[in-house]
Each structure stands twice: as structure tokens, then as C-alpha cells.
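Lab notebook page, bench 4
Experiment: in silico fold of construct C2
Operator: M.H.
Input chain length: 240 residues
Purpose: comparison with the prior construct
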Amino acid sequence: MNKTAGMNSTIYSVIQSFADPKKALILQRFFKTGKGEYGEGDVFLGIVVPTQRKIAKQFATLPRNEIEKLLVSKVHEHRLIALLILIEQFEKSDEIVKNIIYNFYLSHTKYINNWDLVDLSAYHIVGAYLEKKDRRILYDLAKSKLLWDRRIAILSTFYFIRKGEFEDTILIAKILLHDTHDLIQKAVGWMLREVGKRGGEKEELIFLDKYAHKMPRTMLRYAIERLPEDKKSTYLNQTG
């Protein structure tokens, strides 16, 4: 951290001290912030994720009302740092506080509105919270009209995948099988690939054998990335 990032500084001044306008322009293009794109209107300061993680750790005890102010900000880094702080707090909390953070997260999903925000937070909070609980909420999210809810649904299952549990990933992938959005197709394919990578190759192949011919090509390509070339060709030849 630089000299301006002392504990007496406000979180906003600390964040701003790391801003890089040149990098911000690159990120705004990368995260599709133009008119009509999925990240339309998102504002970037140009701060790399490792630095944002350090800021989150520095302000790990930030009150929830202040976290909320960050989370509803138009500035992308404000929102990501808010989520990283929530993860810090969630992982160190008892079940009562975890429940509060989980519900806070799900009530603010319209602000968790870019793929990196979802990918870096959903399984740490939603997936972790639901490990030994009813997971029907994920199926509701998978049917949501909000793109980010649907991505949260499939990405939350990454927590279960890492524990060797694949059923919810497979079932939610079926729900999202015909999703037309590129970000959902990529996420589903990625999670199916992770199933195969982490001990569920049988489950992945059963899914592919049944649905490869129906899968959007982007989804399929992500799912089969680690398979042998002959297997890849077989599945790719099944799609239009």
C-alpha cells in the first residue's frame, strides 16, 4: 500500500489514491461499458484486483451501512471492494451474521452487475452459506430475468463443486441450457468443465452426451476445453 493509504484515511480517499486513468480506459473497454453493452455506464478507476483485496482487508470491519454505500456506487472498484469486505466479514462470522450477510447480498444483486463481481463473490457467500441448507433459491435465481441473478446461480455452485458435489451444477446447467446471453453460456460451460476437472468427469460426460447437440456453441466450447481432441470433435460435430 502507498503512503496515502494510512488507517486514518477514509476508504474513498484510499481507493482514489490508487486510481490509474490509463488502465481505467482499458478496463472500460474490456468490461463492455459502451452503450447497449452488458456493462453500460460502469465507471472504472483502473485499480488492479490484488490492490483492491488489500484495501478490503484494511477496512475489513467497515460497518454494513458504509459497505452498502460502496455497493450501490457507479464506480466498479467501489462495488468490488464492498463485496471483498463482505467476504472477509462472512468468513470470520458466526451463523447469525453469515445469514445477515447472505440476505444482504441477495437483496443487492442488481448492483453485483458485472461478471467479475459475481465470479469473485457468489461462491464465497451464497455457495458457502447454502452448503448444508436448502438450495432452492439457486433454482429461482437461475430463472430470473436479471442476467446477474442467473450468473450468481451457476457460479454459487462452484463452492459445491470444490467439495465434490455436482448435482446442483448439473441441474442448474439444464435450466440455463438455452440461455441466449454470452455471459451465461460461458459461465455454464466453465462450471461443467470444473465438474469434470474436480472428480466429476462421469457426470460431465453424461450431461454432454445428452445435451451437447442442444448446447450453444460457446457453452459447449467452454465445457469441453479439457477433453481429448477426439472427444471435442465428437461433441462439436453434434452442434449446428
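Observations: Residues 3 and 92 are 28 Å apart (CA to CA). DSSP finds 16 helices and no strands in the chain.
Next step: discuss at group meeting.
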